[in-house]
Design brief:
- The structure is a homodimer.
- By secondary structure, chain A is mostly helical.
- Chain A is built from eight helices and two strands, in the order H-H-H-E-E-H-H-H-H-H.
- In chain A, a hairpin with a 5-residue loop joins strand 1 and strand 2.
- Chain A is elongated.
- The interface between A and B is medium-sized, with 34 and 34 residues.
- Chain A binds a DNA duplex through helix 3.
Chain lengths: 141, 141
DNA sequence: AATTTAAAAGACAAAAACATCTTTTAATCT
DNA sequence: AGATTAAAAGATGTTTTTGTCTTTTAAATT
């Protein structure tokens, strides 16, 4: 489904959304500890997310990563697109390059429902909404 | 979603289901040509599928791969399990080792629908049924 | 029995994904 | 200004996935 990098990215962004703000940043070390993922690898991912304007960051003492209010409004799919690329959503489930309604693969029509379910998870909800829902249910982030 | 090997495997099995039988086998070369996938790589995959009893094969002249009537009755999920492992269905969408209804990840409940859609595609239909449906719709296999 | 055909098996190679380490840059604090 | 802190950037290493090639084994045909 998602690559490992992408899974880390999603978890990191949700965690940042829940626990940080402009005045309350989190360093890679702290974040890596919380998520129990390799520090340097996470650093690379955050770097890319930062470059793409999905998370915010500041250097130096009191620096770190955080999610601005604007950052929170983005759909979760932006994170996925940033790391795994936009193909994840649209590409054929059997990897055929020309699969579509006109030239469908053997699973094309069955796969539509799966496609929609996927969209509901990551395209239809903003980062803020996902976190809100999770906090309501007392889920760990 | 599925690994490349797994995508090849599914396509190969469906093709074999549509065009072969005990008396009408297909060699790796011919199959690779039809599916437009690398011959030797496909060979490896078929070897594994054969070892696991998902496809049938015969050596020597007039040899090749085919699907017996019994082979056809298996659900598509057997192919997926054989190549990508059984985890694909049950594992957490964010890769958390302990994600479940009791200790759910931030996307656990949203992911349920996606899970079900996925099951409907590969667990609820036999290979024979998928091929039948595809042939009815004139889809290329 | 000898030859041919094609899968089975295993060794090997390239690419991508995953992960770590070091250096540089920029910001803060004293 | 100098020291310190932490992200940015880049180099490097490891593992997994993907792909190729060669040898072996078994079956059929002559």
């Amino acid at each position: 489904m998602f690559s490992k990098s992408c899974k880390y990215a999603i978890r990191a962004v949700l965690h940042l959304a829940a626990f940080t703000a402009e005045e309350r940043k989190l360093g890679v070390q702290a974040l890596a500890d919380s998520l129990e993922v390799p520090k340097h690898f996470l650093g690379k991912i955050l770097q890319e997310l930062s470059r793409q304007g999905i998370v915010s960051s500041a250097k130096g003492p009191t620096g770190g990563f955080f999610l601005s209010d604007a950052d929170r409004q983005a759909p979760l799919s932006r994170v996925v697109e940033a790391i795994d690329g936009p193909e994840v959503f649209s590409s054929c489930i059997l990897g055929l390059p020309v699969c579509g309604a006109d030239n469908p693969c053997p699973l094309h029509f069955q796969a539509l429902e799966y496609r929609e379910a996927l969209q509901e998870i990551i395209e239809d909800r903003s980062i803020a909404q996902v976190v809100e829902g999770a906090l309501e249910k007392d889920l760990k982030l």
